[in-house]
Write a structure and sequence with these properties.
This protein is mostly helical. It is built from seven helices and two strands. Helices cover 60% and strands 6% of the residues. It is globular and about 45 Å long.
Length: 169
Amino acid sequence: MELKSYLEELYEYNYWANKRYLAVAETLTEEQLFRKQGHSWDSVHAVFVHMMSSERMWPQRWCGEKAEFLHANDFPTVPSIREYWVDVEKNMRAFLAEQTDDSLMHDVTYTNPKGETFTLPLWQMVVQPPNHNTHHRGELAAMFALMNIPHPEEEAVQYILDKSGQKRF
């Protein structure tokens, strides 16, 4: 498998898993959605906005644009998060579609919110959003479990089995 194809598949998995967790969030009461639980971003709502914000920021960095965090208060409901994320996903897919295996090997320099500057091959940064989202979906799973909310498995093998038709989740 070529690098670009692998990265596109990685993002397919990422969006599959994110949508499954968003579907669970849509069943929560407002109190459950905003309940402070002591994880990295406190609430289910804040974790989703952070995930979406980070995913939006990386392509901005790769294109040399100034990247800024989204604000949680701009997304008061799960449907508002889902609606905005559609454009984030569309932009990421468009960015990936423009890439070649060669372009993914080129170094890109970016500056993080702390003002630190780093240079890495593009492909190494492209793997960051799905990896980051996997980490935060783990936190969401813990939050859901603490509230006794059933949630789906979202490991990569589950996606592969689902996609291959061997098992539907």
